[in-house]
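In response to the reviewer comment on reproducibility (Comment 2.3), we provide here a single inverse folding case reported in full, input and output, so that an independent group could reproduce the run without further information from us. The structure tokens appear first.
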């Protein structure tokens, strides 16, 4: 059996004498470490003139490009050598290969490649037949595209609060449902899956559709299922900041063949190409007014290669985030960002709830001074307080979203999301990287412990 002294020695060996002495609950007199090593009883923060944990700064980098290699290179060369960058000209389309591989990877029947996560949302709205007179519930904290897709469909966005996971709060959804509600957009934000169980129950109870936005959580899971596989339809983004990337790109996922056909037609000028028609028994629908969101062969080629690295990227994130959580778990009073499924969480962030925005901001400044990049929640916007949204500005003054009785009556602004504003204001910490080294992880742990203990529990 390991003794407390042995565990203490191992920790000191890992994070260094100074880090251990300034953070661990004392089991020896102040200034005296294990086995007679003399150290300071506390470390002066770098923000106050002390020595930083790191002399060179540490920060995360976009994940996908770190894993580019000959796999993506060869896929791109195949396209160049074929001289067929248009997916419907290519004999063996890279986009179609990616679509099939992506659907198989997450266990879905259908996947459709498009030009971006935003156009994937527009396509999903069209597939769900969202339009004027409909209401769609979405979280107050998410990216513009979720709101814009609703408005550009002519429907009315209705905001719900988030909870401490930064995702939509299931407890705030039901009060937003009316007879006009048609769908809920569930966004899995900054690597953390939303709590799908109660949301699915609410949707079933009220006969609502669920659109999962997985742009910030590709590879995340909830109770063993990939995000994007539990609702009626889902979208993903492959922009630079996402789990895998081709710089831009998006996808639509569904098990519903009718929704899939509508998505296909909407993204391709109303048409249903033979390769899809053959697999769907010829198709069920007629053409309708649509767009051109077709993915290029170059994008499909890179994504086909990147998909092969997805689990490696996700595994690195989870591993590193777990090590940091374990390294700070014994800090008194510590409260981490909530997650509905720790095992399925991507581990994009290790964020602490600091109790107040002032404490959060000081913690972040102090952590940066120690050489560790630190941030509050990001990648999204508190949408109701954005001026154009608060003022309900649209592309045309007669746009249907806000010209109905309900559209004219609805009010946005800070008064519709006070809890969201509070939660986001008090959380902050470190954004993880799948390629952080053991030394990097140890430095993150040392820095968090050093600053947290200096500040005292919230």
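Designed residues, in position order:
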């Amino acid at each position: 059996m390991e003794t407390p002294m042995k565990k203490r020695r191992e920790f000191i060996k890992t994070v260094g004498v100074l880090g251990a002495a300034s953070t661990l609950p004392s089991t020896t007199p102040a200034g005296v470490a294990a086995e007679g090593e003399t150290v300071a009883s506390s470390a002066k923060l770098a923000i106050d003139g002390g020595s930083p944990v790191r002399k060179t700064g540490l920060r995360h980098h976009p994940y996908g490009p770190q894993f580019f290699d000959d796999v993506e290179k060869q896929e791109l060369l195949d396209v160049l050598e074929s001289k067929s960058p248009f997916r419907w000209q290519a004999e063996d389309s890279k986009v179609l290969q990616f679509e099939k591989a992506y659907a198989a990877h997450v266990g879905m029947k259908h996947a459709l490649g498009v030009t971006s996560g935003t156009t994937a949302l527009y396509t999903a709205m069209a597939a769900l037949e969202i339009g004027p007179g409909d209401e769609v519930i979405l979280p107050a904290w998410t990216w513009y595209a979720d709101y814009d897709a609703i408005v550009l469909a002519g429907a009315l966005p209705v905001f719900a609060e988030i909870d401490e996971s930064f995702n939509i709060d299931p407890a705030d959804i039901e009060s937003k449902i009316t007879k006009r509600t048609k769908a809920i957009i569930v966004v899995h934000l900054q690597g953390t899956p939303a709590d799908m169980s109660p949301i699915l129950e609410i949707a079933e109870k009220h006969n609502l559709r669920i659109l999962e936005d997985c742009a910030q959580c590709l590879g995340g899971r909830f109770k063993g299922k990939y995000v994007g596989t539990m609702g009626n339809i889902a979208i993903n983004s492959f922009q630079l900041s996402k789990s895998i990337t081709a710089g831009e790109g998006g996808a639509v996922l569904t098990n519903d063949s009718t929704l899939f056909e509508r998505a296909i037609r909407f993204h391709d000028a109303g048409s249903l190409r033979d390769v899809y028609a053959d697999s769907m028994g010829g198709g069920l629908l007629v053409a309708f007014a649509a767009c051109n969101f077709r993915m290029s062969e170059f994008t499909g080629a890179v994504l086909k290669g990147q998909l092969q690295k997805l689990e490696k990227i996700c595994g690195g994130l989870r591993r590193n985030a777990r090590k940091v959580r374990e390294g700070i778990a014994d800090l008194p009073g510590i409260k981490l960002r909530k997650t509905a499924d720790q095992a399925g969480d991507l581990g994009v962030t290790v964020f602490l709830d600091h109790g107040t925005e002032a404490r959060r901001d000081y913690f972040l400044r102090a952590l940066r001074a120690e050489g560790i990049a630190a941030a509050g929640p990001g990648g999204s916007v508190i949408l109701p307080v954005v001026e154009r949204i608060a003022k309900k500005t649209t592309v045309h003054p007669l746009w249907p979203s806000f010209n109905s009785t309900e559209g004219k009556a609805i009010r946005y602004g800070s008064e519709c999301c006070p809890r969201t504003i509070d939660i986001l204001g008090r959380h902050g910490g470190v954004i993880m990287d799948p390629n952080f080294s053991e030394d990097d992880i140890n430095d993150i742990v040392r820095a968090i412990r050093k600053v947290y203990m200096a500040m005292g529990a919230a």
